[in-house]
Design a protein that fits this description.
8 helices; globular; 0% strand
Length: 205
């Protein structure tokens, strides 16, 4: 069985986001069921909203159960793995960054393929990238990363925008995807490393 480059990226994004969800569950000392639930939320949540909006049926994880399988395997892997104190938060942030870049790019690509137009495609790419993580964080009773001061949704927007521009320039699909993922991940990584944030309302006082 052969898999396309896009499909491989989708599975990588699913695994990365599922690991971030499972790590969040581990920080809350949940049981194995909680691990699986929190792994599934970021792994399929955003893509589900996207597919409903663009009327892409059946929803991707219903037509291909391997997405759910990858998420559950990732949850079990995290559940049965030991971590040094304090390391789970760092790993969660970086896995989330990878999932964010991958899903923002793929969400944009899928939306463009359904004739949404460039702006709507980018917005749906951002939706794909951030919605599942919001659900994860809300379940954990934490402020979602997208609503914090961190560079987060901006990185997803950057990934989607780069993909749209590369597509307009008629770059090969695999190249456009790769460049967009790298762009989104780089913006998020710089935000993490240098603690960058967008100006807040209070900063203007």
């Amino acid at each position: 069985m052969t898999f396309s480059f896009i499909y491989i990226l989708e599975m990588l994004g699913t695994a990365a986001f599922a690991i971030s969800g499972a790590l969040a569950a581990s920080r809350k000392n949940m049981d194995i069921f909680g691990f699986c639930v929190l792994a599934l939320m970021p792994a399929v949540g955003g893509g589900t909203i996207r597919d409903i909006v663009i009327d892409r049926t059946p929803v991707f994880w219903i037509s291909d159960s391997r997405y759910v399988a990858v998420a559950i395997i990732a949850a079990l892997l995290v559940f049965f793995t030991s971590y040094k104190p304090g390391s789970r938060r760092r790993i969660l942030v970086w896995m989330d960054a990878m999932g964010l870049a991958l899903f923002a790019t793929l969400g944009t690509q899928i939306s463009l393929a359904h004739d949404t137009g460039p702006l709507i495609a980018v917005m749906l790419g951002v939706t794909t990238a951030v919605t599942g993580g919001m659900i994860r964080d809300i379940i954990c009773n934490e402020i979602p990363l997208v609503l914090s001061h961190e560079i987060y949704a901006t990185a997803a927007f950057a990934a989607g925008l780069v993909y749209v521009l590369a597509d307009k320039l008629q770059a090969p699909s695999s190249l456009a995807l790769a460049v967009a993922v790298i762009a989104g991940f780089t913006v998020r990584a710089l935000g993490i490393v240098y603690n960058w944030s967008l100006p807040s309302f209070g900063a203007r006082r």
